[in-house]
Write the structure tokens for this entry.
Amino acid sequence: MSKAIIQIKGLNKWFGRLHVLREVNLEVAAGEKLVIVGPSGSGKSTLIRCINRLEEFQQGEVVVDGIPLSSAKNLEAVRREVGMVFQQFNLFPHMTVLHNVTLAPCKVRGWSLEKAERKAQELLERVGIADQARKYPAQLSGGQQQRVAIARALAMEPKIMLFDEPTSALDPEMVGEVLDVMRGLAESGMTMLVVTHEMGFARDVADRVIVMDQGQILEQASPEVIFQNPAHERTRVFLQRVL
Ligand code: ADP
Ligand code: MG
């Protein structure tokens, strides 16, 4: 097995007195696709947000591509390696699609506008919305906005992509177009951690499914095992609700 690109050891996090991550241990290999499932409130978002330090944690170690997330200095470096896509696209409403995609590479990577725009056009083509580059987010459908959000994250050339319920806010007819973009990204070899209830996607794309429950990893296995023969009754109950 190749060396883990993400190493999480003994991770504990509290919100006030609420213990939301309990002794989480997880290693992710470069190129691996993980799907994270579990009931609402089980800590899925918090776990992936700890990987780019959108959340602080009180105990444990998170190392991303060899960079420990312990000092503020490393934080910058890690954020460059890790892209994130949220449920609510979080695009800048007052900027065009193109500007949304070029902003971070210009600011953080110091690219010229010309270079950033060339790259952005390529990415917008890749996610199937090259013709929307001059529009504003509000002029786009939810599915298109989420594809812009994916292009924006990819513009930083991350090694890892985190997705937090990327299709949960979409009308049903737009879910497929976003999942297709994510499938394409998976085929390109990207390391991906995806929180989703889209079990078809999990079945097709995941190397491993992580089941979270009450701040812990309840079990983890291939999609086949999780869907057909889970070790825990609670996994079975959860899957019956979402399938
Ligand atoms: P999931 O993504 O699995 O639904 P979360 O990681 O969002 O779960 O939340 C885990 C627990 O932490 C929940 O009990 C939630 O209410 C709590 N929580 C999440 N964010 C905050 C916050 N900013 N402040 C206080 N509690 C929070
Ligand atoms: Mg969540």
Remarks:
- Residues 172-187 form the longest helix (16 residues).
